Amino acid sequence: MIPICIATVHGKGLGVLLESIRQYAPEHPVYLRGPESVIEKFDAHLKIFGQPSNFGDDYNQVIQAALKNYDQCIAANDDIVLTPDSIKVLMEDVGIINTMHSVRAGWVVSRSDAARPCQNVRITEQPERLHFYKFPSEAHIKMAEEVSPILGWINKEAFGEGFPPLNWYSDDVHCWDLNKRGYTHFVSASYVHHIGSHTIGFDAKKLHDQALPWLQANRPEYAKEWFDA
Fold it and tell me: Strand (E) positions, 102-182?
């Protein structure tokens, strides 16, 4: 079964996430990374003890550990809660996408109530009205240039060297790198509840300023294209 990979800093919402996995997706092994003092009390298939570094490095460590034993995995933020069919729908959509021979699937991600616009269920790109509390377009898979793996599937080949060592823009840059390698990203009909920026914080300027020097040094094309920097 496909492992679920989680990295945490303080674990404030982790118990709720793990309980939702136990209730709705118990067949999926959990790979968990975080400080020993935080994660020692939680059950997981594999625990990786380590102090927080940054989103990219922390998730690389836990995902790469899982990909030693599996050819695909699911990354999950530590501040989400699954619904009964979050993973079921995600994997059904992965199956559909993998039959599309004209594309190579990069990230396939869930929708959420706290996410970038292409994944955000509060936003619709279509002239539509709510139907039974949802926009009809939420039931459809769509392509996207950049996505956030709040709950996201990826295979070993696509993941490659993984995220850059950043908090902000780590997922953006990884998507950009995969686009350059010929991969396409997708937004699934799957949904998870997301607290949103619960781990890395809300100081956007600080997070941007921390990331920009690395981007200018290591992804100058990306820095120029997105920030004219």
Answer: 105-112, 142-144, 151-155
